[in-house]
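Q: What does the predicted 3D structure of Zn-dependent hydrolase look like?
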Amino acid sequence: MKRRTFLTGLAGMIPAGILLSNTNFNDTPTLSHTFNPKLPYDKTPENWKGTPQLSDGTFQNLYHPFEASLAAVLKWKLNKNPQEEEKKADKRRLDVEKIGTFQPNGKDELIWLGHASYLLYIGGVTILIDPVWLDNWVLKRNSVLPIIPEQIRDVDYILISHDHRDHCDEATLKLLGGLLPDAKILTGLNMTPLLQPWMPKNKIQEAGWFQSYALSESLRITYVPSRHWSRRGLMDTNQRLWGGYYIESSDKTIYFMGDSGYGPHFKLISDTLGSPDFALMGVGAFKPEWFMHPAHTSPMDAARAFRDMGGKNFIPMHFGTFDLSDEPMLEPLDWLRANPEAVNGALIDPFLGRNLI
């Protein structure tokens, strides 16, 4: 992404760039905890009180307070990228296998659609995760979408981890709202006012961290913490909750990280819900690390988090489709391939459009 293009899209996606603040500095916000009273807690950490929220309405990370600095954004974007020439010379792109109409054969499937977007069939249920398939005013795809949207049928749930534009795209969701009006949306607290106008026929469930959604199937999906933040415009910082998902069927568990920096919450999740069979871990958009690490894990930090969780299979994501940071787009995968011991030899090499489980 060009620096000037980034600055025009500053409000919507990359951390720490607050141009205007909706905080009243004359009042010191007080901390409380919240949840959706309509949804259950099946498993919680010891002494769990709920999702942290300040009296000004902003949600908070469990262990690391959100910090915003326009000066840090400008320092990054106005300084030269030390890997700029290397990045320009690297023309490699992700391998893609077109899949046509999705017709499950009864076996579980996890198909990567690029960045943090997945098509999942598990326990007889079809799920879309963070579908961002169309170019928008900030993002341009650098990998081919493996499937034609109109060829997806009978989706039960659409999971939207948080409101950032590389995970929550208005045009894609409007398209899916028309194609899949019966699909239920599973997301975080206070996301309905954003999503419902785009998908007026779709029912939406909002969860706090460690709450499980009300599903008719035996499948259990729990919304879990991440170390991140949220914003779509200039005045709504952290007004919508962010998180990941822990998906459990009768014979398999899948952890989807969403966006997150490294922190103790990874072990907290596995201590509470168990070590995942498959961990979908963000590894890209991590340079410069001094700036990105509170919001995105590097491949090194993602590997550390995977080991903290005791995961069995490591599936990297959040790289190779959108150009969001300083590193060449396939550098995270290069590091993982060169350091298989970092994930205990459990790397599943990603391939767009191919079943990964």
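A (community wiki): The structure tokens above were generated from the sequence. The chain has one domain: 3-36+50-80+106-343. The two ends are 32 Å apart (CA to CA).
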